[in-house]
Write a structure and sequence with these properties.
The chain has about 270 residues and is an alpha+beta fold. It has two domains: about 5-215, BirA Bifunctional Protein, domain 2 (2-Layer Sandwich); about 220-270, SH3 type barrels (Roll), CATH 2.30.30.100. It contains five helices and 14 strands. It has helices spanning about 35-45, 95-110, 175, 185-205, 210-215, and strands at about 5, 25-30, 55-60, 80-85, 115-120, 125, 130-140, 145-155, 215-220, 225-230, 235-245, 250-255, 260, 265-270. Strand 6 (about 125) and strand 7 form a beta hairpin. Helix 2 crosses helix 4 (about 185-205). The chain starts with a strand and ends with a strand.
Length: about 270
């Protein structure tokens, strides 16, 4: 297990509100390498992974926080929501976890600020052109079991100084809602867990969340380039972002007329 120190603050008290749900077990760490790494080690060391369903690992600070494509995720200690959630879904909804996490994050932000959020495919939550939240999803297959890990980094109290971050446009709930007052991270976490449960239960009942997720997407109908990185090779797919399919894949109409379904990648929109 990475070097970490349990925090005595009250994030863990949220367990009482989520018995039998996501959030039924909460681990709150003052500092760790990354909550995703802690989640992976919990899964690796557990004989019955289904017992971990609903575990949420919060950290006040990460020394090696990572986003998509192994990029670092920076956050000031004790300012934001840094959480990884372990879920053991039915196979039929396993492919919708990224969609669920990004939509839940956007809906959480909408409850706390007056400006509408949007989603940049596949998993960044924006206010205007500024990023307020990033989501990453990983899967672990052990035998016949599928375990998903949802990583969410939500800027809550972080104060962004553009002069210190040239070329990086970001914002936070505090910057948009109440610059003079600190936002209660526990209340933000409670809203996020509640919405995650709402969406997860809907998927588990066989309902769809795609229309609401799709309605928040920006860039559909635009000319885009998607960079796909893999161990074998890198590829760039360019064309018109026509739509998304039922699995959240981006449908790109290439210049030759063929339609490509892209599951993941880094999107650049050309105006």
């Amino acid at each position: 297990m990475p070097d970490q120190t349990p925090d005595s603050s009250d994030f863990a008290s949220l367990e009482n509100d989520f018995q039998g749900q996501i959030g039924a077990r909460i681990i709150h760490l003052r500092r760790t390498t990354s909550t995703m790494e802690v989640a992976r080690e919990l899964i690796s060391n557990c004989g019955n992974q289904s017992e971990l369903h609903g575990t949420a690992i919060f950290a006040d600070e990460q020394s090696h926080g990572r986003g998509r494509f192994d990029r670092s995720w920076d956050s000031e200690p004790g300012q934001d929501i840094l959480v990884s959630v372990i879920v053991c879904p039915r196979p039929s909804i396993a492919g919708r976890l990224t969609t669920m996490a990004s939509l839940a994050s956007a809906m959480t932000v909408d409850q706390l600020i007056s400006q509408p959020s949007s989603i940049k495919w596949p998993n960044d939550v924006l206010i205007g052109r500024k990023k307020i939240c990033g989501v990453i999803a990983e899967s672990v297959t052990t035998g016949a079991s599928f375990v998903g890990i949802l990583g969410i980094g939500l800027n809550v109290n972080r104060r962004i100084d553009p002069s210190n971050s040239p070329g990086y446009e970001a914002t936070s709930i505090r910057d948009l809602a109440a610059p003079s007052a600190e936002i209660d991270r526990r209340e933000v976490a409670k809203i996020l867990l509640s919405i995650l449960n709402e969406l997860y239960d809907a998927l588990d009942r066989g309902e769809t969340i795609m229309p609401e997720w799709r309605a928040r997407l920006i860039g559909l109908g635009s000319q885009v380039s998607v960079s796909i990185h893999s161990d074998e090779n890198d590829e760039v797919i360019s064309g018109i972002a026509e739509d998304v399919d039922e699995f959240g894949r981006l449908l790109i109409r290439e210049q030759g007329g063929s339609l490509r379904a892209v599951a993941a990648g880094e999107v650049t929109t050309r105006i």
